[in-house]
Amino acid sequence: MPESSAPLPANDDMKIYGSPHEILDVILQVKDSLVQMLIASGVDPAKTRPTARMLELDQNYVWPATKINNTDDILVVAEHIPTIKRMEVLCQACLKSGASEADIEGVRTAMNRYEEMVKHSAGDREAFSDLMHGLSYNDVTSRQEPTRKMAFRAQSSLWGVQARINFKTVIYGPVTGAPDRFDIIRLGGLVGLRRLRPVPWSVYRMLAYNEDGSPTEHICESLDPNLSRDLELPLLKEFCTESMPEINTVTTEHGRRFDIASGPIGSIGAVDCIFGDLLPDFDSIYQAEDDKNQSAMIDLQTPAEMLLFDLFVHKDLPFPLPPEVMHLDRLNATRGFSMKINDLDQLPLSAKARPLSPGQAGCSVSSYPQYGSILDYAFSRLGFSAMDFQGYRFTMTYPTIPSAVVMNMAKLPVV
User: Fold this and answer.
1) Residue 292 and residue 177 share a domain
2) Which of 73, 104, 134 is the last residue of a domain?
3) How far apart are alpha carbons 176 and 208 in whole angstroms?
4) Nearest Cα to 392, choosing from 67, 17, 20?
5) How far apart are CA 378 and CA 240, in angstroms?
6) pLDDT at residue 147, as a whole number
7) 361 and 223 housed in the same domain
8) Among 20, 299, 338, 415, which residue has the fewest nearby CB atoms (within 10 Å)?
């Protein structure tokens, strides 16, 4: 059986793959085309045994594909990409099961590009595996995960609530007519939030404070034009659970807190609560006397299985990238963030934010497929294409509470 539908390019024609972004883009193309082919053939790309049975293949041919589908860890994806010969067996089975020639050709093209990239960047797959480990953006202190998982289970029991995913996405876009200033869009929410006891729980905090934690004012607009400017929880209702529970507003000295009322426990009462707001003309890209950094932050207050934190910066905003990621204590410092004192508040962290390939496909989350549609909604609200932005992603399993994660960028010096 032929190993590919077309020969690999000659060395003289090879593209130069010299950056993590270019390597990431190739690997994601393989993943996305593979998943699309499996879906088009009428199988579930997340399940090995049923897929193997429907495609009439040995599970050894299918398991790497389902493993690739079920992870957002780019290192894991790269380690499980089959050889061209084994992928061709899978392609033929999918073609027989209903996938189109275009779906098959998409996988073949991606695989040819992948083999080209491996040969150019490392020489062979074994050497490429070493290269990928050097580019790993995961928390190398993985030994902490069992401890965090135990804490998650204990905190879920104590507080009577847990979420499947806690996410926040911050998008920086230039202000029209003022290239030295920027708007900010904030997205976020709790996915699969369920109560273990019939307790109320805070789902969103509309708080504004200075670096020292003192209250301040800010103007924000809901991304949903049907909501008022400043008083309502900025829910994105089309992405929330259809029957949302009652949400109560609690006013504090630092702003407002929005709590879902007590309700059914377990999976029956599980909700997705997604919000989005816009901070127009938020700030300048240049340093002020006591303001030399721009930071995006998520406060972690809810026990969750996974933290997803994305940052997108428009190509016309010259912030130095990648951002610095910090994990902050929130037992002693309850609010605010200052680079002057961050050393006192930092928790151990060895993970980094990894670059995201532009466009929805490169930013997909296998455990939350709706996320791509939320991004599309936000970018259209700003009036930009996702391709105009550079993205970075930070993830953590069973994130510590109470704590905060910051992505910090330096502003430009005034000249």
Assistant:
1) yes
2) 134
3) 25
4) 20
5) 15
6) 82
7) yes
8) 415
- Are 245 and 366 within one domain? yes
Q: How high does pLDDT run on average in the chain?
A: 83
333: pLDDT strictly greater than 90:
no
CA–CA separation, 148 vs 391, rounded Å?
Answer: 27
**Is residue 2 included in any domain, yes or no?**
no
Residues 193 and 112 in one domain: no
Place of tokens 């704590």: 403
DSSP class of residue 112 equals: H
pLDDT of residue 78: 86
> Would the pLDDT of 205 be above 70?
yes
| 10-28 mean pLDDT | 68
How far apart CA 57 and CA 397 sit, in angstroms, is: 34
Give how many domains the chain has, as a whole number.
2
Question: Does one domain contain both 147 and 282?
Answer: yes
Is residue 406 domain-resident?
Answer: yes
Q: Are 125 and 257 part of one and the same domain?
A: no
Whether 180 is in a domain gets the answer yes
Q: What is the SS3 string spanning 146-198?
A: HHHHHHHHHHHHHHCEEEEEEEEEEEEEEECCEEEEEEEEEEEEEEEEEECCC
- Answer with the one of 134, 158, 175 that is the final residue of a domain: 134
For the chain, the first-to-last Cα distance in angstroms comes to 64
Strand ranges across the sheet with 324-329:
293-300, 403-410, 324-329
3 in any annotated domain: no
Distance CA 382, CA 232 (A): 21
CA distances for 175 relative to 55, 261, 323, angstroms: 52, 38, 21
Q: What is the pLDDT of residue 2?
A: 37
Range of the domain at 364: 142-410
Q: Residue 151's domain is classified under what CATH number? A: 2.60.40
Q: What is the pTM of this model?
A: 0.72
Query: Which residues share a beta bridge with 326?
Result: 406
What b/e sequence results for 125-143 when a residue is b if at least 16 CB atoms lie within 10 Å of its CB, and e otherwise? Answer: eeebeeebeeeebbbeeee
Domain shared by 100 and 28, yes or no: yes
Give residue 356's region: left, alpha or beta (phi > 0; psi -120 to 50): beta
DSSP string for residues in 303-356: -EEEEEEEEEEETTS---SSPEEEEEE-SS--S---TTTHHHHBPP----PEEE
Is the preceding peptide bond at 402 cis, omega within 30 degrees of 0? yes
Judge contact between 297 and 314, C-beta under 8 A.
no
Say yes or no: 269 and 335 in one domain.
yes
Tell me how far apart the alpha carbons of residues 61 and 53 are, in angstroms, rounded to a whole number: 11
* Tens digit of each residue's pLDDT (9 = 90 or more) over 219-251: 678 888 776 554 567 889 889 998 888 888 887
